[in-house]
Structure formats: structure tokens, C-alpha cells
Amino acid sequence: MRPAGVVLLSGPEEYLASRAAESIRAQVRTAQPGAELVWFDAGTYDAGTLTMQASPSLFGDWKIIEVAGLAQMNDAFLVDALDYLTDPAPDVVLVMRHSGGNRGKKLLDAIKAARATVVDCQPLKKDGEKAEFVTTEFRLARRRIDPDAVRALVAAVGSQLPELAAACQQLMADTAGDISAETVEKYYGGRVEATGFKVADAALAGRTAQALSMLRHALATGADPVPIVAALAMKVRAVAKVHGVRGSSLQLAKDLGMAPWQVDQARKEAQRFSSEALARCIRARRSRRAGEGRSTGSRVRRRTGRHRHRPGRRLTPQGPDQRCGGAGIRPASPGGSRHQIAAIPAH
Fold this sequence. Notes:
The protein is α/β, with parallel strands linked by helices. The protein folds into three domains: 6-120, 3-Layer(aba) Sandwich (Rossmann fold); 124-193, Helicase, Ruva Protein, domain 3, CATH 1.10.8.60; 196-285, Zinc Finger, Delta Prime, domain 3 (Up-down Bundle). It has 14 helices and nine strands. The protein has helices spanning 14-31, 49-53, 75-85, 105-113, 127-140, 147-157, 161-174, 181-188, 196-204, 208-220, 225-242, 249-256, 260-270, 275-304; strands at 6-10, 36-41, 63-68, 92-98, 117-120, 316-318, 321-324, 327-331, 339-343. A five-stranded parallel β-sheet has the order 2-3-4-1-5, with helices on both faces. Strands 6-7-8-9 form a four-stranded antiparallel β-sheet, with no helix packed on it. Helix 3 links the parallel strand 3 (63-68) and strand 4 (92-98). Helix 3 (75-85) runs parallel beside helix 4 and helix 12 packs across helix 13.
């Protein structure tokens, strides 16, 4: 099947744009194996090039004309492209790439007015969008992947779309039958991108093993534990806000200062919690915060040197250390704070 005569690839996601361009080439060459491919950049375009390249071939072959850089197009290309849209060549497929921005808005409006095919190439930012992408990849290949395996794959290699697509292709090429979470773990288990929110999502969804695995990986790779705890606390607070509360998502979002999708997600997670279990989570978080406060105060006292001195005890030098009853002040090790408190037996 031949694609439309004019196609616009619109959006900043280069991988989706390149996939769409490859698909168009394949469709044209399936119908016309001898189709010629011509490429040029709209930013360095010479006037008349599009008209010349779109002229009918002596041999009647089709032609694929790919134009990159519409976001930086010069005036010469704008004039020629607008003129071409009024009378497209019947044996040409013109594919134009616009990565975003306001440059060339007049041409973009003309392309849409001409009812040309527009392929949306927006980046996939949410895990749900990436999961849908993975599911579609396997469905198109007539393969099945378990929902847990989809989540595991997105968690492991979901930051870059090309890498995620390549992982899908590798799993399909190297395995037979359904893809399970165990299969994904075998191939990509050591590459989980454990952010605080991913750990929190897995924990509140009841995926304990996955949450602990991601937490261990995050800490082992030097992640700061504070944002992880903060993400978990935020998720628990959201669940507590909606637990047992009736009303529409829109109304609750307005009353609670949350987005509607956050209300829906929190409600789904709240179904797993009884009031008693949720209360235990909140008490555990408060106990943790109290411990953090004591720890912070201790660190401040150490840093400023405001140590308590017991009455009747005299601070006297004792070799390299200075001892005060049962506590000693030692010179800091390289990279440490100015002083460190060390436990020293009293004499």
C-alpha cells in the first residue's frame, strides 16, 4: 500500500520520526522497488530544488523526497513548499520533518489544510505511555508479554526510547513463547533505573520484591536515600487523603489540591489498605522523621563544636586525643567534618 503523497513528521522525538520514515520507504519500495530516495535540508535549501526533484521521471519511477530541518527552514524552502502543496506530483512521496517550534507555522498550517498525513512524534514521558509502546511492539510481532514483564522492562531500560525498542527486539529474537517478568530479569535485571517514585510505586502496589530490589540497586549505585523516602511519604499522604472518601475525581482533586489522575491513582492504591494498616504506615513515617531530627541535631552539635561538658569533669589533653569523661574529640579523618565524636572508655 502506497503512503500519502505528503507526510509531515512533527515533534521532537527523533526515534519515532526515524521509524515513521523507514516505514514510508518500505511501503513505497514494496509497490515500486526502483523508487529513488532524495534527501536535503530545509535550512540550507537552494531555491528551485524541490520543483526540480519532483519533476516527472523519464522512466515513470516513483521518488521519495525527504526534507529535514523544517524548524530551521529558510525563506526559499517556505516559498517552494507552499507552491508544491497546491499541485503535488502524483509519483512523489514528500516526507517533511519538523522537530517543533514556531518557525514555519505558515507551512505547517498549509500542510494540515491540505489534509496531508501528520505523524505525531512526541516523546513518551510517562511510564504508562512507555508500557503501551512495549505492548504494541509485541502485539505487532504477534508475541505476548506479561504485564509484570512490561513494567520490569520499562523500569530497566525505559529512559531512552531507542534502547527500550532495541530491548523489545532482543527479547523477541532471543526467546520463544510468552515473555515473563523472569525473562526480563534474566536479561536486564541489573539495569533497573530505581528512582524514588518507582520504588514508591512498587511498594504501594504490593510488589514487595521489586520494590526492595530497586531500593537496593538505588542505594548501591549511590542514590540519595532522602528523595526516596520523600517520594514514599508523598505517596502515602496521597493515599491517606483519598482513603474512604466519596466523590468524583474532579471534585476531590479540587478539594484536596491534587490532579485528577493523582486522585485516581491514589484511590487505586488505597484499595489495598485498611484504616489500621494506613495508620501504621503514617506512624512509621513520623517515627522516622523524629529520628532524622535527632540525627540532624547531633550532626549540628558536632559540626559547631557545642559539646556538653559534665560538671566535675576537666578537659585535659591525653596524647593525640582530648578526653572528656566518656567522650573524646578526635581530629577528623580526611574528607570528614572538623571533629568526630568517638566513644572512649572513662577512666
